[in-house]
Specification:
alpha+beta, 7 strands
Amino acid sequence: MSARLQRIGVLALVASLCAWMLLVFADTAHRKQFWVDEGFEAVMVCERPAPRMLLQGSYGCSPAPLFSMAQRLVIRSVEPLGLSMRISYRVLSMGAATLALLVLLAGLQHRLGLAAALVAFATLAGDPGFHHYAEQGRAYITWVMSTAVLVIATAEMHVRDTMRLRTRLGLLLGAGLLIGMSATPGCGQAAMAFAAFWALQRWGRPAAPLGRKAMAALAVGAIAIVALDVHYWSGSICRGWGGADDMGLDFRASQDAWAMLSNAASPLWGPGGGPWAWALRALLAAGMVGPVWWWRRRATAGPAERYALALWAIALLQLLIVVPVALGLIASRYLFLPRMFIFALVPRAVLTAIGLCVVLELVRRRASRWAAGVAWATGAAACVLGLWHAQRLSDVWRFPYPPVGDISCESLRASDLRLLRPADVPDDFRLNFLVRLGRALDSCPRAPSAAGPPRYLMARDATNQADWFHVSDQPAPGFEPLVVCGQAIALRDGRFRWE
C-alpha cells in the first residue's frame, strides 16, 4: 500500500509541477507584446495551406513544417482580437514546453528516481532561453520538446525487453520523424539516436543484438528523414540570407569570436555564475564522465543502470549535432545565436540528472545511510530553485500595458467598421494593435448602434502614443486592409467578424 501511495504522490507532484509551469508560461505570455519575427511568422504561416507545407516545407528559416501546420490551425480557429491573442497564439509553444518538462520528469523518475528527475526539471525550467521561447509563438520550443521525446523514447526502447522489437523500432522511427519535422537539424539528431540504439543493442546488451532487417529499417529510416529535411531546407528563404553581418551576428565577421561563441554555447553550459549554476555544471561534468565506469559492468547491469547508460550515450551523441549546426551557421553567415542550439538544453538536463546518479552512487559506497537523505534534499532543493528561477524569469517580462487613452466608444460601435493598417509596417504591428483594440472595446459599454454605411478605422502606432487610431468615412491613402491569416478584419456593432 505504501508503494502505491508513493507512486500516486509522485504522479501528483509531476502533474502539479507541469501545471504550475504552464500557468507561469501563460501568465508571462499574457504580458508579452508580439515580437517582430513572432508577428511575421504568425501572419505568414497562413499563406501556405497545410498540405503544401507538408510537401514543400513551411515559410521560414526553419522550414520543417510541424509547428507551422499546427499554428495555422490555431490562428484560424481563434478570434484575433484582445488580450486572449497573446495566449491563444502562443498555446502551441506553451504546450510544447510543458510537454518537454513532463517527458523528462516522467521518463527519468520512472527508472532513475525522483531526485534525478527534479534536477533535470530544474535545469530546463530555470533556463532563460527555454523560458523565453516557451512564451513566444515560434518553432524553437517545439524543437526542444521533440528532442526530449527522442532521447527518452530511444533509451526506453533499449531497456524494454518485453516489448516486441518491431514495436520498438516503429516507436523509435516515429520519434525520429517527429524531430525531423520540427527542425531541419533534427535529421542529424534522429540519425544519431538510431546509431545510439544500434550500438547499445549490439554492445550494451550482447544477448539481444539487432538483426539485419532491424538494422536496415533504422538505416532506411535515417536516410528518409535526412532526405526529407534536406528537401525542406532546399526551399528555405534563409539560404544565403547574408543579413547577419548587418546585425553583428556573423561569426566570420565578428571582432570578438570568442565572446560570440561563449554566448551561443549557453544552452550547452548554462547561463549565470552563482552557486546554483556552478552546482549544475559540476553535476553536468560528472554526468558526462562518470558513466564511463558503469560501461564496464554493462553485461550485468539492471534496467535502471542500462537506462542510465543509454541516456548517457544518446545525450552525448545528441550534443555532437552542435558541431555541424555551428559549421552550417558559419558557412552560411547566418545568425550565430543561442537559440540555434536550443535543442542542447535537453541533453544537458539529462546529463545533469545522470551526474546526480553518479554522485549518489559514490555516497552509497562510502556512507550508504546518507544516500537517501542526500537524494531527497537534492531533489527538494532542485524543485524549489527551479520554480524560483522560472518565476524570476517570468517577472522580467511583466510590464504595464500602454493605456487605452481617450477614445470614442461611439466610433468603435459603428454598424460596419473596416480595419486598415499602414502599408510597409512590421508584421508584429497588426497583432499588437489588435490587442490594444480589444482592450479598448472591452472598456466601452455595450450599446446598439445605428445602421449606416461602412466606416474605416486607420490603425497607427499601438505601442505608447495616445492618438493610436482614427475613424473616418473614407479610407486614407497609404492604408490597406488589416489582414490576419489571409482574411480582412472588421467590426460590426463593436464585435469582431471576418470580412
